[in-house]
Amino acid sequence: MELVLTNARIVSMEAGNEGYQPSQPKTIVIKDGRIDAITDQTVDTSDSFVVDCTGKLVTPGLIDAHTHLVFEGNRANEFEMRLQGVPYQTIAAQGGGILSTVNATRKASIDQLVETALPRLDGLLQSGVTSIEVKSGYGLTLEDEIKMLKAAKELEQHRRVKITTTLLAAHALPPEYKDRPDDYIEHICQEIIPLVAEQELATSVDVFCESIGFNLEQTEKVFRCAIEHGLKVKGHTEQLSNLGGTELTARYNGLSADHIEYLDEQGVKALAQSGTVAMLLPGAFYFLRETQKPPVDLLRQHRIPMALATDINPGTSPFADLTLMMNMGCTLFGLTPEESLRGVTCHAAKALGYGESRGQITTGFDADIAIWNIDHPADLSYQVGVPRLYARIVDGAICND
Ligand code: NIG
Ligand code: FE
Question: Which GO terms describe its cellular component (predicted)?
């Protein structure tokens, strides 16, 4: 059966000014999971399921294109330590931070990981999300990384949502490889990437390119191997210092360079050449009480598409609400509400490699839609914690969750 949305004031997020202005009421016809037609004409709905959108606003379903949604454990104790002045890097160097989540995650089964991820997933869905990228990176062994990727994909069996998985084995140095980072990189390239590619457990590979992560040379090895295995690359780059990871990511035609608070103009120019998306993560900036902001003006000048994501994880961004990130994008980084909305729709889709099929309300695109009890799109960046979602539609299926 077809799904038809009537009286839809559409914020299409197509390129150009008009993409952000709500349209006059229109009818959207959805067939086989795709947007089949958008019309001012009356449509025969005798054979269709009809949703009357009078008084509502219709946007693309939101896309959270950078998350660590699957993990076990809790790091509230580290939050307390950081509030007393202990830096994130120091906690990591003492074996806490990412490694404390690794310890907990290694002990969990796939079912447990799914169960603990579901409440966080529900938070995201309530903020209008229809597509989510989920990274591994808290396993750091072949077996545990695979377990995380399988748990992430398994979430699709529990909720209507589209999950894209990313291998982040190069997130931190596992204790077994202490003082032998090059051996671990070798293990990632020889064992983990080939298997993940062969079993199609992920479509991209990420590296934490940072003083407390992996250096440029190690990052490049992982990128080269990923590409040889038909996977796309992306990077956690320039989060805490400037190592040049963004330029490297751009050189390998990365999908996105993420965090980028310490990015300089040379790095921005590299992004411009490759078409790599600048992924801004204001939740981590806020929660780590950073003061160095990403170079938003330079990114604008060079017309780099900017995406926004939750980065939801237990250490630096424990926030399961993408509209909160839209608010922070505006208040902390100076984005306009339009830029924020582009950041979680069309630009986030590009960051996942789905720029031609998701993130816009356009004929032929996937019917991933959010219907809101609001009047103007700026409302999504403006309020936080007020339930505004009326319904989500994923591949043409309506969910009132
Ligand atoms: O995106 N920067 C590295 N990874 C995560 C943090 C992970 C953690 O602290 O558990 C991030 O901020
Ligand atoms: Fe992250």
Answer: cytoplasm
